[in-house]
Amino acid sequence: MVAAGWPGVDPEWSREIDVVSTSAADVPGTVRRWHVLDNGPQLSRRGMAPACTLLCVHGNPTWSFLWRTLLAAGTDAAGSGAAGSGAARPWRVVAVDQLDMGFSERTGTLRRLADRINDLGDITTALDLDGPVITVGHDWGGVISLGWALAHPRQLAGVVLTNTAVHQPAGSPVPPALRLALHPAVHRWGTTTSDAFLRVTHALAHPPLAADVRSAFMAPYRGADRRAGVGNFVADIPADPSHPSFPALTRVAEGLRGLDVPALMLWGPRDPIFSDRYLKDLIGRLPHAKVHRFEGAGHLVAEDRDIAAPIFEWLAGLSPDSEPDLQRADVLPGSPLPADNASEGTALGNTALDTTALEGSRGTHQADAGVPTLWAPLIRQATGDRGGDTAVAEMGANGGVSRSLTWRELEHNIGVLAAGLRDAGVRHGSRVSLMVPPGVDLTVVLYACLRLGAVVVVADAGLGTRGLSRAVKGATPDFLIGIDKALAAASVLGWPGRRISVRDLPAARRRLLHVETSLTALTRHGSSLSQVPPADVPAPYAAPGQDAPAAVLFTSGSTGPAKGVVYTHRQLAAMRDTLAATLGIRPGARLVAGFAPFALLGPALGAVSVTPAMDVTAPRTLTATALADAAAAIDASVVFASPAALRNVLATKDGLSPAGHEALGRVELLLSAGAPVPEPLLAQVQKLLPQASLHTPYGMTEALPVTDISLEEIRVAEADAARGTMAGAGNGVCVGRPVHGASVAVIPLAADGSAPGNHPATEAGVTGEILVSAPHVKDAYDRLWLTQSESVRTAGWHRTGDVGHFDAAGRLWVEGRLAHLVTAPGSVVTPVGAEQAIEQLDDVGLAAVVGVGPAGTQAVVAVVETVPPVRRAGPAAPQLAGRVREAARQAGVAVAAVLTVPSQPTDIRHNAKIDRTRLSRWASKVLAGGRPGRP
């Protein structure tokens, strides 16, 4: 062994140990030689007492080298490097090479799962690991480490798992890669005679392994005589109940259900072997575990991502003092884990802000008694005098109402469908992915699922095929309810979940799409059942608890992969109440829902709702005529529409009939959300809806809404900015003051563009990351523990990732996203203010300000969409470039280069959020002399 040749490995860690084997695979008294990487002796020589021991177990065909970053981080007693603050105390890390693997002895025996669990116990005895011990496992090392954990409860302090599995679901085939490796014609050649199995495994890294790392992984397995263990490991996969190792695997799998110690799961979703279905199974067995999926990472997640930092961060958080006393093995097992958002924000004392006490926020509620359900207004309408009035409608292409339900019919249909769904297996906690366009069907199935306590998963087609597929697979729904197009995509892309169609399908089509039943059939069946869940929800339809998960709603994905946001029933009800209190939307209101998130809130508000004839996942499909037809159909008083939808409404307004103008003229309130809405656009909309009060709530999937402002207030704010007499007025989009029940603050930016502090500020003119605290802020990010931890690191607040400041009147101005800041020499440039100034030029449509070059020395580049559009993207004409630079200079930004594009790349969902990250990459290429092309 030449440890010095292994990148990232300190030679001091490498040692060999003779261990007496007690395994049934060996003759009693047999001594086996083990190789381990162990920083324990090094810590002892330095006089450092470790807080705990991490026992790391590799899988097949890796070895202890896989855990080198944990060894390095555990040795870092100063708390620097990969481990971050979690390594403030040293941690002993023992990474073993299993027998027949790595640089441990080649035994010449076939060691089964039970033997390997026993072997691990032998070496921990030899190492005198008396506890506390936290096991860390990957691949089949995960199962073996869990077997040791269950056999050593006294020493056990916690478990960490990376891509592994403990159970093969009944009726599900073994992953294709393993099936191939197990095939008699391939097995010996693929795993032992050749090094094909190793090379294929190493190729699963994203990004590819560096040459020296790949060489180190191959080092112990050069020569067929060194690879027998690789082949035997594969042969010991218990693919079915007849396999000799199946009982041992079952004991581990079932034993996990009673394992009451802290647990952490770090997962690479791009794993062709241990997919998200295995993660879902593990979550079911260890429901208290913290889970983080590293989007884009795969099977070798420890190589693809830094897992040392989150592991040590998690370890540091196991004690309320973040300095756990782990000198005894009985400290951690069974100890309560801190809540993700344990403490709540307090009023900041700034009279310019709405600092209403958060009576409804997490942690301050009493028992559920007296808390109204989300659908209580719906029931009141159904059982009251207006039960026969229209509750929900959808428009047809001919301009008339194609379908509608009264309040009474809506309540009845929800009840019978809930009965049918329950009979089909939908239960409390079942995840149900809804791929149904907004309208009557989606309204009924959504509220039926919520009434049963199921968790609805909503990820719209606006994410695009890849984004939508990633979201659905990550959420791992138990059921998928969709239209024909969605079911076809599910079949092609392998989405999980039992499939239910909206309508009855022909038998052949049903078989092709693997559809079990339909909403139509379930409604018929529900009508025939004796027990239907009515308003009071009697047993067996026990009402879900207010703090039970209700929905997973996916973000737009405009700043990276879409994230699942978990809401409880309490938080959804708080969202409804906030909208009602802030905007005065009362039962009986009549709203046109041209913006998908609001299409589902009408019944919860007790408001009549209609979906216009449009594709709500493509906002630009809303025309002025479609909007007017929908408004006329219910004599609408409220309209919800995104900025992109409003732009198309204005572009098509010439086709409006007198009746259409009249219908829009009766609208009292217009809400536009999803992206900043400039004053000139609102001014044009005001002419089309002359009686409406125009409001632009600011919010995000994690907290909707956060602030609100009217057109009149926007004009006052912009006038204050123009006069220059009010501190903080200007530079960005004014989004108003906090909504009812919410508090807003900022964390000031550092010179490098980060927001490192944890002390909220509300002083005028201080730019920082925007924080929000409110009863309707999300519960957590779904299976994104690290992201969630970052978002609540300022206790009691959600860190939005947006950047802005307050003016002296307490109004919030949004200046952009933290991820989009430009770090120029000597300054941090926020993009929105300069973009707005540039967009005032007559021949400019949309503008984006991005940074090019290394952080701290970035050049500011303006990318503009011209009117009329240029034919080819590339450097701007000198005259236009001069005017763009001058406009930006007036906003306090020095632009180094100006580029033009025929159209700005925007996110699909809103058609209004410019993809600045994509533009930055494109601009870098162009300015480096590359062919412009389209961004």
Approximately how much helix is present in the residues? 25-40%
Overall tally of domains: 4
CATH architecture of the largest domain: 3-Layer(aba) Sandwich
- How many helices? The count is 31
Q: Tell me the name of the CATH class of the largest domain.
A: Alpha Beta
Q: Tell me about the biggest sheet? A: 8 strands, mixed
Q: Give the oligomeric state.
A: single chain
Poorly predicted tracts of residues: 78-87, 320-371, 535-540
Radius of gyration: 30 Å
Annotation, overall tally of beta strands = 36
Mean pLDDT: 88
CATH topology of the largest domain: Rossmann fold
Strand order within the widest beta sheet: 1-2-4-3-5-6-7-8
Strand content: 15-25%
- Give the terminus-to-terminus CA distance: 51 Å
Write a compact overview of the structure shown.
With 935 residues, this protein is α/β, with parallel strands linked by helices. The chain is built from 31 helices and 36 strands.
